[in-house]
Amino acid sequence: MTSTQTRVGKIATVIIPVADQDAQIEFYTSKLGLEKRVDIPFGGQYRWVEVGPSGAETTIALAPPPPGGTQTGNRETGISFHSDDIDAYHAELKAAGVDVDAEVSRMGDPVPPMFWLRDPEGNSLMVVG
User: Fold this and answer.
1) What is the CATH number of the domain that holds 107?
2) Fewer CB atoms inside 10 A, N or C side of the chain?
3) How many domains does the chain have?
4) CA angle at residue 86 from 112 to 114, to 5 degrees?
5) CB 49 within 8 Å of CB 17
């Protein structure tokens, strides 16, 4: 008898619970440069919204908290973005008023240059170069 294992083929979507989807869509698209991929109603009063880098498979869902849950904001998301020009991206975000670290951190190999940013609800994301 042949046995097969099911394997994960990709990371599809990561979820950030948010209180104000419209404000978060504006931030993630206008400030961070992601594109809105999905924005559909579900469950009567909810919306499922996904954003992601152009051409990327993995998306971020900006979703309402789960039923019975109320906690949104001030989360360490565990999400990291990659930028080919981290210094230029950092400067662009800073000029746009995004809450970013004061400087790009450089610890030396093997740790890549990096900085943290926070969205309007205080959720933190990392950018590496």
Assistant:
1) 3.10.180.10
2) N
3) 1
4) 40
5) no
Q: 27 with 19: CB under 8 angstroms?
A: no
Q: What are phi and psi of 98, to 5 degrees?
A: -75, 145
Q: How many CA atoms lie within 13 A of 30 on its CB side?
A: 11
| Residue 38, in any domain of the structure | yes
pLDDT in tens, 11-58: 999 999 999 999 999 999 999 999 999 999 988 889 999 999 999 999
Asked whether the bond before 110 is cis by omega within 30 degrees of 0, the reply is: yes
Query: How many helical (H) and strand (E) elements, i.e. helices and strands, does the chain have?
Result: 2, 8
In a domain, 105, yes or no: yes
Instruction: Assess if residue 2 is contained within a domain.
Output: no
Query: Closest Cα to residue 15, out of 66, 55, 70, 74?
Result: 66
In 3D space, the residue among 82, 92, 87 whose CA is nearest the CA of residue 56 turns out to be 82
